[in-house]
Structure formats: structure tokens, C-alpha cells
Amino acid sequence: MRCIMGLIGVLALAAVGCVQAEDMGGSGGVAGSGGSVGDGGTSGVGGVPAACPPLAGPDPESSIIDVDPSQVGNLTAIVSSARPGDTIRFASGRYELAGVYMWVSASGVTLRSASGSRDDVVLDGNYQTREIITVAASDVTVANLTIAKAATHPIHVVSTDSADTLNTQIYNVHIVDPREQAIKINPNPGGYFVDDGEIACSHIELTDTGRPNVQPNPGGCYTGGVDAHQARGWVIRDNVVEGFWCNAGLSEHAIHFWRGGRDTLVERNVLLNNARGVGFGLAAGGEARTYGDAACPGASGYVGHYDGIVRNNFVFANDPGLLSSPDGFDCGICFWSACGARALHNSIVSTSDAFSSIEWRFPSSTGVEIINNIATHPLRQRDGASATLDGNLQSAQLSLFVDGQNGDLHLDPSASEAIDQGVLVPAGLCDDDIDRDPRDGNRDIGADEAQ
Ligand SMILES: [Ca+2]
Ligand SMILES: [Ca+2]
Question: 433 alpha carbon to ligand 2 midpoint, in Å?
Fold first, then answer.
């Protein structure tokens, strides 16, 4: 059913089910995993957390295309024929895709559930559909859905041979058990890029059930959370990403921007039991996007990532399976060939071993700043990288946190080693904490400013 929404139409069509009914989500702490919208913060007004409010309803001027599970065989055609600005609204239920995929090629298209709850709509690839949703146009939104068991990527954002893909919004999506990277961001070889997107308030996970199905080639563990190539200006915030590790082979990071990424902002995420947390850059050479404005004059040669900020994140590991796996908890925040990268006010904790809490590697990792982070394990310089370090606390004890064994990395009131012990940070760089509460005049070390 196609519903043309206008101001009058809203009332007229309410009776036939064309009006958005958003749920208001729950409430709770930022560290909760598995929640839906509403679990993203503690500081909202009127019971609606500020970081993850319900997505606004469809533009009343847009066309709404309602689909239900009986139409699953037609989804490829329905999505391919969407016009610019259309909203495709999924009725609650399980969509057994069995090879069906969705390719979005019109700008401004939105894919979302009718109920507003991401748990109510499951798009299940059952490892038969390769890419489930491909975004190949600008201003596309994917929201309030669950996407399970893609044979490759649950969401793949690509540019085309004639245009950049800009302003993708991925919001309140639950991605579970992808066979490869959960959200892949790739440029088309023609010189157009995928820039200025946002991934927010989502839950991306690899479960114990899904882990044996991970693509083993190449490297034994070809999976990860967000994997972005040559992308600029993305914001990755208020997500929970968990479980990306394998019994053989090293998983890609929970959040990874490389091959010439730039200006990525990674904030207020909870990264649980991943072999690697946040990565800017990776290689020391190869193909990469470059920029014409001398983005990093201090670096010579290959740069894997330019500038960008990683702030107010919890990165935590306590799963014995991960910690005893061959690669273990390899790296919490990893700046490899990452020029000008900043790690500000993160909390990085392992209950057992970890190789690096924060790592900066290769000579083009220059101008790096590592400020006011709290970590149980080493901050590690490697292979000619250079960084400014100040206000960090290494070898932190688990007792400094509210529940260091289970991942609530808010500071315990007794954590005098961390509370009020941070150094000054220029205004505008990190004014709030993981709860979106303001930093006070004496900054606490780590992601939490204790109240
Ligand atoms: Ca303080
Ligand atoms: Ca706080």
C-alpha cells in the first residue's frame, strides 16, 4: 500500500494504518547492552534520553510505501523502484529473505519499521542473502530495524561511478551475526566517496551462536563492526558493539576507519569483548585516499587516517573466550598511520590480559594526542610513531570502577586516583562525559565524570 502523506492525509489515513507510531523506548544507563532507543543516556529531559530520542516521523510530504512479510519476495523490486524521498515502512514481523536483497539507489529514501521498535522487524538473511541493504545514494536513512545473518554485509554503503554518497544515517538498528563486517563503507573506484554519515544508537553484535559462521577468508576471521574505507566526516556515537573476535584469526575492529579516512568522530560508544576496539588507519603503505589541502603536513608517505577524535568511550573485555583466544584483546584504541588522531577521556579495561589499551604505530602517526584516558593495560608506542601524552592513568585497578568485573566503567566514588586528576583540555574538544554530563573544572580521568 502506498500512502501519500499530507497534512490532511495524516488524519485521513490514520484509520488504515499509515501513521507512524514510534515507541518511546526505555531508559537506563549508557553501559547497557542489547537495549533499544532510550537506553543511550541518563541525562535526558522529561524521561527521553538526550542522545537517542525516537527518530522523527516521516516527512509529511514524503510518500510512504508500507510492506509486510508476505511481500518479502518483492522487496528487491519495491526498494529498487523507490523514488527520491520515499519511506519504505516495514510492518512488524520476520522477513525471511532467502536471497532477497535491497539496493537503494534513490536519494532521501528511508527504510524503517512501522512500530518504531527495532525488535519488531527482523530482516533475516539466514546466510543466504549476501548484502542485505546496499545504500548507493545520498541522504538515505536506515532505522528502527533488526538485520540478521547476512552472508556478507548487513549494510553496505557505496558511492557510484557518478556521485558521492553523502549523509547516510543508520539509527537504532540492531545488527546480529554478520558473516563479514556488519557495516561496510566503500568508495566506488571512479573517484567518488562515501562521506558525512552517522551511525548512532545502534547495537552491533557477533554472538557465540554466530561466531562459527564467520567468513574465514582471508585471515581466519574476516568480520568486524564498522569497516570504512576512504571515508571522511563520519560520526559514530552512542552505539554498543560487541563480540567481534574469533577462535582462529584476528577480527577487524569494532569501529575501523582506514585507507585515507578523515575527521572521524567516535564518541560515547560501549565496545564490549572485541579483539580490537577503535582503529584509525592500519597499514604502513598501499592505496589510500589523499587530500589536496596538505591535511597532515607533518607526515611523510602513507597516511591511513587524518585527524579525528575518539572520546568518552568505554572499551571493555571480560569474556574468557576472547581473552583466551589466540589473539586475545589485542588493542583498545589503535592509531596506525593515523596523523593527528586524538584519544580523549576513554576508559579501556580488561579483566585479564590485553596487549595495548591504546597504541600508536608507524611514523605517519605523528601529532597524535592521548589525554586523560584511564586504562588497565599499557599505552604502547610502536615502530616510529610519536604522540603527546598527558593526564592518563595506566595500570588502573578494577576497583576504581563501579563494576570493573562486568563493565560498568563509571568511576567508583572512592576512585581518588582518577577523580579530579585529569589535565585541562581546550574548550570544545571534550566538554561532556559519556553520560553527556558536563565536565567540571577538575576533570576526572576516563569517560565518566563522576557526579
Ligand atoms: Ca571532576
Ligand atoms: Ca558521569
Answer: 6
CA of 26 to the centre of ligand 2 (A): 19
Burial of residue 46 (CB within 10 Å: 0-12, 13-18, 19+) is exposed
Helix (H, G, I), strand (E, B) or coil at 389: strand
Q: Which residues pair with 45 in a beta bridge?
A: 48
Residue 294 lies in a domain: yes
pLDDT in tens, 333-371: 999 999 999 999 999 999 999 999 999 999 999 999 999
- How many Cβ atoms sit within 10 Å of the Cβ of residue 276? 29
* pTM of the full structure: 0.91
User: Cα of 309 to ligand 2 centre, how many Å?
Assistant: 19
Question: For position 208, which CATH number holds?
Answer: 2.160.20
Could you tell me if residue 161 is left (phi over 0), alpha (psi between -120 and 50 degrees) or otherwise beta? alpha
The answer for residues whose C-beta is within 8 angstroms of residue 125's C-beta and 6 or more apart is 97, 132, 147, 148, 149, 150, 151, 154
Distance from the alpha carbon of residue 445 to the mean position of ligand 1, in angstroms: 8
Q: How far is the CA of 50 from the centre of ligand 2 (A)?
A: 14
Number of structural domains in the chain: 1
Closest to 307 in 3D by CA, of 368, 388, 258: 368
Query: How much distance in Å is there from the Cα of 416 to the middle of ligand 1?
Result: 10
Residue 425 lies in a domain: no
